[in-house]
Amino acid sequence: MSSRNRLLTGSERNRARHGASSRATSGTPNRGPAQLPEYEPPSFPLDISSRNALARLLTTERDTKKYEEHLRQSITLLTNSVRDINDKHVKRRETLRVIREKRGDEKEKGDRERAEEKALLLLKDEVPGLTEQCDLAVRDVIDLKIELEDERTALQEMVNRVEVESANAARRRQEGQGDNDDDDEDMADPADDVTGPLRILKDAKARAAEDYATRTLYERYGLNNDYVGFKGMWHDAVHGADGKPLPDASKWFTQGGGGRNNNEDDEDEDLVVAEEHISIHCPLSMVVMQDPYTSRKCKHTFEKAAILEFLKSQPEQQAQCPQTGCSKEVSKDDFYADQVMLRKIQRAQASNSRYDVEDDDDDDDGSGADVTGVDDADVSMQMTKHRQVKSSRGRDRGRELIENIENSIGD
Fold it and tell me: How would CATH label the architecture of 278-361+395-411?
C-alpha cells in the first residue's frame, strides 16, 4: 500500500483534530469530511480471524429482523386494505340493489336511494385507483424481500469464495516450498488469485439483480406466496359472493401487466368459468372448519388442529395428503392460515342460516299444502321423521368419507 494511503496513527489523528479545531475557531470555513481514498483490494487472502468475522455475518439476524418484520406487516396491511376497499364497494352495490327492489318500478326514488347512488359513484371512481396502488405497493414490498434474500445468498457466496481463495493460497505456498529450485520470476503473484470480499459481494449482488430484472411478471409475482395470498383476497372481495373462482396465475398479467380484477363482468367470454363449490367441512375431523389450513402444494384445506395432529403422528411429520385422491407429500411447513377460505366458510354459513330460516317459515305455514284435519301429533311425527332422515344421511356421508380417507392412507 502506498504511503499516500497509509493508516494514521493515534497521535497523527489527534493532531489533525486539533488543527481542524483551531481553523474552525479562527474563522476558517469548514470544508466537510475528508475525502476517503479509493478502495484497494487485499493483496493476500484473509486470515482465519477475518474469515470467521465474515462467516458470523450469516448468523447475525438482528440487523435485518426488524426490517423483515416490517416487510411482513406491510404485506398484511396492504392485503387487508385491498379487501376492505373492495368489500365496501360490493356492499354498497348490494345495498342499492336491495333498496331498488323494495321500491319497485312504480315509486319514485327516496333520499336514501339517492344518497346510496352518490356514494356508489364516488366509490366506483376511487376504488380502482386505490386497488391499483395497493397492487403496485405489494409488488414493491415483494421486490424488497427478494432483494434481501439475494443479499443473503451473495453473502454466502462471498464467504465460500474467500475460503476457497485462502485454501488455494495455502496450497500454492506448500508447492512453492517444495520447488525451491525454480526461479522467482516463475512463481505466481498471490494477488493474481485474490478477488477480495467486497468485489465478490458486489459481483454476486449484481448478477442476482440482473437475473431478477429479466424475469416476467408471472415469474416474479405469480409464483410468490405473498402475492398469491394478496390476489386471492382481492378476488374474493370482488367476486366472492357470486362464487367465481380465481383465474390461473398465468392470466393475471395478460392485460398490459396490470394484474387487475374488474368489478363488472368479464368482457372476454372465454374467461367465464363455472361457479366454485367448496366444502366447509374438514376432511379429517368432519366438522365445519374454524381455522382453515391450506396446503401450498395441492390447495387442499383442513382444520388446523386436525391436520397438525395427523402430521404429528406420521414419520418425520410428513405424509401423503389425507384428502381422497391426492398423492402429494405434505409437511407442516407446506400449510398456511387461509383467510380467503375462512371468508368463504363464513359466507356459506350465513347462506345456510338464511335457508334454514326460510325452511322454518315454510314448515310453519305447511308449505302451501292443505293440513286440515292433521293433528299436532301427526305434524310432530312428520318433523321428527324428517330430522331423522337428514341425520341418517349426514352420518352415512361421514362414514363414507372416513372410509375413503382410511383406504387412501392404507394404499
Answer: 2-Layer Sandwich (3.30)
